[in-house]
């Protein structure tokens, strides 16, 4: 580990300017992922830019009736926010399904979206890894890959994104507000995380130096039907084998609107758009949910040990949709 | 006489632990202390071609870098010496036998600098293909773990005629069961501080289950007299069998501290602990049972395959408990072993009995279904009054009582026999049970008691408290014998200068130590010419003496050789399965255990609860996998090695039979540390079968296996 400078920028602009002029600088807020990573030599920054004291801790109602969530709002604060609990219950549930209370107290929204995969091959510098060091290989593809991707992976990387919050955000059609030296820009959440392709070292479409400043949730009239179903190897404190976020707008017998997103299955939170489109105009029944699940997983590909995730994902989608059709709640 | 034994007493060490006053091995602060960080092999088979330490040595704060080229002085132990987990001494040569093997130690003035410099040691390897896959290994007959005289007898044994017996049986079952590698993952990592006062004497602050054993091992390897080594280990944050002997990191730390002439601390990281401080081997066991139509067993065949390491021959003794549990005229036990490129497997809570009883108790459940006999009834019909290999009757058994009481408390009679017949809304509900059993061991021990003028009694012995409650039962034994409140008894443990209190292993500490405490208390009262401590204190003040003091020992009697000693129990559990999404929860648990007399009902029940939780972990989630290509473990911390979280565990009701076993020792007590885990994984798996109709013979029962 190189010695690094610890700096507290006095504004977002200051932080972005420092990060832009020094490509080896890293932002730190809660540090729940980054500090672990520093200890095992995954990151060797020149400086840590501590943004945790900057003013991005508000949750405000937008003119459109949605919410603007500051990037430094903690997971705990967001999950327990009354507007989030009332209007976006699926987001609250997704956050509470992740990590532990202690970690959620420290972790922030911006940091959560920037956390990196827990692929064990990536996590230990004893292994080669294309994500860590481009062009060294992907031992997970031919190794122990029970927790790895079934959708959208490449021959260079089969890692999955570990965030629960992101699955809810992508289902809710969130938008990210980011700031660079040129000013602010917005990125639709669904386009924020990347598939690995030939550049698995890049997790997101942030440009160098850019800092997430807020996440904007549009109003979602049927968000009450939201469900977050997380399936894992133990009841708490484990990453998802498969997770599903769903919401349905049903009018009479007909589905007017559908949201389906998956976690634990791909390099990014996975929005199942085609399956959503299939459901629109259809009846909210078991057979249509089954077909939607088939469509969502039709391109899934199994590695040696993760084939079960395909079936588990389908079942989770069916279950989550069925609960959403009943008005939402715990699945 | 005040009644203390058998009551519920909170642990004496509780307050210092929750307030942080209790000092664990690595927390000892010594002026001038420096830090060592291990460099570990990133290949699993081969040799070191080159090791470049230049950059590490040049790093700020670095004091020394040790590799096989400058191994600190370590002596070969004498022949037949078994006080080591790894037979190979650290940094012995350039050979690599498993990933995570220590190839260097970097010493620096801060932990961060040591860790940083360790990362800069460049090792080039000549790599050979490692073998870490049990299915592809070559097996041969396993040796006896410690020799014939030990409780773990040779795993291969035959009596009667299996082929004749099984040919005309009314029911036969045959199935193969597997378990995965489990790591101990104690809360306190492996860690120590070594401080040489001069060239002939060293103090080692290290968690150990056996201070006198560690003392002997370190003395032998350092080439100094036993009295030159002092081990201090008052508190241990969990061990489960992995802290009984020195590991290579400990030997290296003590040896390196001598070279650098400074106090040295080494803490093994969680990542390193997945590879180089022990594990329970994976097992593959085939059980064949044959029975009459009334369920009486005619034959048992138990074949176990386990794996070991190039640096230690350790067979997980799976077949040892089989002749203990059920009567059968024909029995064939076979224990086989293969060598993989993994670190040394070792004792882990009920070594052998635990995986062995997963196979046996699952097979008994399968036989019960085959015969349409209630599984509790099947076990009652096959109870054996004697140990079938030792040919000795069991003392104070009460196994049937465990089964019957457990069934009653659980409400077993309400069980609908048919699988998939019990539901709770949309959830399938399954009830399962299994027997529990573990040998009762006892060795000799010595304790000293001092009565002081301030009205307190002090008990001193080298024995250890692994967090199990030893401080408290020692104090309770002394308090009752001396006629004092527990608060007036001070207990000092875990120091090799104290009288030999024996080893905290094999669930023998309480049965070994408390008789010695009892004897020492009786002796000190005789010395004081008093009926009880208050009288003795009066005599003390009158006489003007500084203290009354007595030391006594206690060992198994000749009389006790007429019996076989074992502890017994039964587990009953409920699971719910949400079949569509493969979500399994354990929702209810009842255990009835017979460990003879219960000294402290609170800490004894905690031991059983902890063991049940550990067993649920084995049943549902614990597994450490190794990359087949590199042989490197792909589990790296306590977030990726899954063991139960609170949310996984229901209320666990623990009951004891409580009948004293005075054949065993004058306290009537048998050990409680390990029995609780035996049978747990089978009870869960049997309940899963009852819930779903699906027999899962390979642990852990993760969601993928329920689809």
The number of domains of chain B: 3
Number of helices of chain A: 13
The share of residues in helices of chain B is 25-40%
Q: Name the chain pair whose interface involves the most residues.
A: A-B, 35 and 37 residues
Q: Major β-sheet of chain B, in short? A: 7 strands, mixed
Strand arrangement, major sheet of chain B: 3-5-1-14-11-12-13
Indicate the mean pLDDT of chain B. 96
Order of H and E elements of chain A: EHEHEEEHHHHHHHHEEEEEEEHHH
The total of helices of chain B stands at 17
Helicity level of chain A: 25-40%
CATH topology (level 3) name of the largest domain in chain B:
Aldehyde Oxidoreductase, domain 4
Radius of gyration of chain A: 19 Å
GO molecular function, one term (chain B): iron ion binding
Keywords (chain B): Molybdenum, Oxidoreductase
Organism (chain B): Hyella patelloides LEGE 07179
Domain Aldehyde oxidase/xanthine dehydrogenase a/b hammerhead (chain B): 19-129
Description:
The complex is a heterodimer of chains A (331) and B (707). Among the domains of chain A are: 5-52, Uridine Diphospho-n-acetylenolpyruvylglucosamine Reductase, domain 2 (2-Layer Sandwich); 223-326, CO dehydrogenase flavoprotein, C-terminal domain (Enolase-like, domain 1, 2-Layer Sandwich). Helices cover 30% and strands 19% of the residues of chain A. Chain A has helices at 12-21, 34-39, 75-80, 82-87, 89-96, 101-106, 109-114, 120-123, 139-142, 165-171, 273-279, 286-296, 308-325, and strands at residues 5-7, 25-28, 47-50, 59-61, 67-70, 175-180, 183-188, 211-217, 227-231, 242-251, 254-263, 270-271. In chain A, helix 2 links the parallel strand 2 (25-28) and strand 3. In chain A, helix 5 (89-96) runs antiparallel to helix 10 (165-171) and helix 12 packs across helix 13 (308-325). The longest helix of chain A is centred in the C-terminal third of the chain and has 18 residues, at 308-325. With 707 residues, chain B is α+β, with helices and mostly antiparallel strands. Chain B folds into three domains: 14-21 and 443-555, 2-Layer Sandwich (Aldehyde Oxidoreductase, domain 4); 32-129 and 187-239 and 243-276, Alpha-Beta Complex (Aldehyde Oxidoreductase, domain 3); 140-182 and 279-440 and 562-706, 2-Layer Sandwich (Aldehyde Oxidoreductase, domain 4). In chain B, the strands form seven sheets. Chain B has a seven-stranded mixed beta sheet, sandwiched between helices. In chain B, strands 7, 8, 9, 16, 17 and 18 form a six-stranded mixed beta sheet that branches. The model of chain B has no long low-confidence stretch (mean pLDDT 96). Chains A and B meet through helix 8 and helix 13 of A and helix 3 of B.
């Amino acid at each position: 580990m190189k010695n690094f400078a610890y700096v507290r920028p006095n504004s977002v602009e200051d932080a972005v300017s420092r990060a832009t002029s020094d490509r080896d600088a890293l932002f730190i807020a809660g540090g729940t992922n980054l500090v672990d990573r520093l200890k095992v030599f995954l990151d060797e920054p020149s400086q840590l830019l501590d943004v945790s004291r900057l003013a991005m801790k508000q949750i405000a109602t937008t003119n459109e009736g949605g919410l603007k969530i500051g990037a430094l709002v903690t997971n705990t604060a967001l999950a327990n926010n009354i507007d989030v609990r009332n209007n976006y219950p699926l987001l609250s549930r997704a956050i509470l399904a992740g990590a532990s209370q202690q970690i959620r107290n420290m972790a922030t929204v911006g940091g959560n979206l920037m956390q990196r995969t827990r692929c064990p091959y990536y996590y230990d510098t004893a292994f080669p890894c294309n994500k860590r060091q481009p062009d060294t290989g992907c031992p997970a593809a031919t190794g122990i890959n029970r927790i790895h991707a079934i959708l959208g992976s490449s021959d260079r990387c089969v890692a999955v994104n570990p965030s629960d919050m992101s699955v809810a955000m992508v289902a809710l059609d969130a938008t990210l507000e980011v700031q660079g030296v040129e000013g602010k820009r917005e990125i639709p959440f669904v386009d924020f995380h990347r598939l690995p392709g030939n550049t698995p070292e890049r997790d997101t479409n942030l440009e160098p130096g850019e800092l997430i400043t807020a996440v904007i949730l549009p109003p979602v009239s049927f968000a009450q039907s939201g469900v977050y179903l997380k399936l894992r190897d133990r009841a708490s404190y484990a990453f998802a084998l498969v997770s599903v976020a769903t919401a349905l707008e049903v009018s009479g017998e007909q589905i007017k609107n559908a949201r389906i997103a998956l976690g634990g299955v791909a390099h990014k939170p996975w929005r199942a758009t085609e399956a959503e489109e299939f459901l629109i105009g259809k009846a909210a029944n078991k057979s249509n949910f089954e077909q939607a699940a088939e469509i969502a997983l039709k391109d899934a590909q199994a590695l040696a040990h993760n084939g079960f995730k395909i079936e588990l994902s389908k079942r989770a989608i069916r279950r989550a949709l069925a609960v959403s059709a009943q008005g939402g709640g715990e699945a | 006489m005040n009644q203390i034994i058998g009551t519920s007493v909170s642990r004496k060490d509780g307050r210092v632990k929750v307030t942080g006053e209790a000092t664990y091995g690595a927390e000892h602060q010594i002026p001038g202390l420096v830090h060592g960080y291990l460099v570990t092999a990133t290949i699993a088979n081969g040799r070191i071609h080159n090791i470049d330490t230049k950059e590490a040595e040049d790093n700020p704060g670095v004091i020394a870098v040790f590799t096989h080229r400058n191994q600190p002085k370590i002596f070969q132990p004498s022949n037949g010496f078994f006080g080591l987990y790894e037979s190979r001494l650290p940094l012995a040569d350039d050979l690599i036998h498993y990933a995570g093997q220590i190839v260097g130690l970097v010493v620096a003035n801060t932990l961060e600098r040591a860790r940083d410099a360790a990362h800069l040691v460049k090792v080039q390897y000549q790599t050979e293909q490692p073998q870490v896959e049990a299915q592809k290994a070559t097996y041969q007959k396993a040796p006896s773990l410690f020799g014939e005289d030990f409780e773990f007898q040779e795993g291969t044994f035959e009596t009667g005629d299996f082929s004749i017996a099984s040919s005309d049986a009314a029911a036969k079952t045959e199935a193969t069961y597997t378990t995965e590698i489990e790591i101990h993952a104690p809360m306190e990592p492996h860690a120590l501080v070594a401080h040489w006062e001069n060239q002939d004497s060293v103090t080692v602050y290290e968690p150990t289950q056996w201070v006198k054993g560690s003392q002997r091992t370190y003395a032998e390897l350092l080439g100094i007299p036993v009295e030159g080594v002092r081990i201090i280990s008052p508190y241990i944050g969990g061990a489960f069998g992995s802290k009984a002997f020195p590991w290579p990191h400990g030997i290296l730390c003590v040896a390196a501290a001598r070279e650098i002439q400074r106090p040295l601390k080494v803490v093994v990281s969680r990542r390193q602990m997945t590879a180089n401080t022990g594990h329970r081997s994976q097992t593959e066991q085939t059980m064949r049972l044959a029975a009459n139509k009334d369920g009486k067993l005619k034959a048992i065949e138990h074949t176990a395959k386990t794996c070991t390491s190039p640096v230690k021959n350790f067979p997980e003794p799976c077949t040892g408990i089989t002749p203990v549990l059920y009567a059968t005229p024909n029995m064939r036990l076979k224990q086989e072993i293969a060598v993989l490129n993994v670190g040394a497997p070792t004792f882990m809570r009920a070594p052998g009995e635990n995986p062995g009883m997963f196979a046996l108790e699952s097979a008994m459940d399968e036989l019960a279904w085959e015969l349409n006999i209630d599984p509790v009834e099947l076990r009652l019909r096959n109870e054996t009054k004697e140990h079938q290999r030792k040919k000795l009757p069991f003392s104070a058994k009460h196994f049937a009582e465990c089964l019957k009481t457990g069934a009653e408390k659980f409400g077993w009679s309400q069980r609908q026999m048919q699988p998939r017949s019990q539901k709770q809304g949309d959830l399938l509900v399954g009830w399962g049970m299994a027997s529990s059993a573990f040998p009762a061991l006892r060795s000799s021990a010595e304790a000293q008691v001092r009565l002081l003028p301030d009205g307190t009694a002090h008990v001193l012995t080298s024995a250890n408290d692994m967090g199990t409650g030893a401080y408290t039962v020692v104090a309770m034994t002394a308090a009752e014998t001396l006629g004092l409140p527990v608060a007036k008894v001070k207990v000092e443990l875990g120091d090799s200068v104290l009288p030999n209190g024996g080893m905290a292993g094999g669930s023998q500490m309480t049965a070994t130590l408390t008789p010695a405490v009892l004897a020492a208390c009786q002796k000190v009262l005789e010395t004081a010419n008093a009926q009880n401590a208050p009288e003795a204190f009066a005599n003390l003040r009158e006489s003007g003496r500084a203290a009354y003091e007595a030391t006594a020992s206690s060992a198994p009697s000749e009389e006790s050789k007429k019996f076989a000693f074992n502890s017994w129990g039964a587990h009953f559990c409920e699971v719910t399965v949400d079949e569509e999404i493969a979500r399994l929860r354990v929702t209810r648990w009842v255990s009835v255990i017979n460990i003879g007399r219960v000294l402290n009902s609170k800490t004894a029940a905690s031991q059983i609860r902890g063991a049940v939780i550990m067993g649920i972990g084995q049943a549902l989630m614990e597994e450490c996998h190794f990359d087949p290509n590199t042989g490197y473990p792909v589990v790296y911390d306590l977030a990726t090695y899954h063991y139960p979280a609170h949310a996984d565990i229901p209320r666990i009701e623990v009951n004891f039979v409580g009948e004293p076993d005075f054949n065993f020792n004058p306290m009537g007590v048998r050990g409680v540390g390990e029995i609780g885990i035996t049978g747990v994984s089978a009870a869960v798996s049997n309940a899963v079968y009852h819930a779903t109709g699906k027999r899962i013979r390979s642990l852990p029962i993760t969601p993928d296996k329920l689809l």
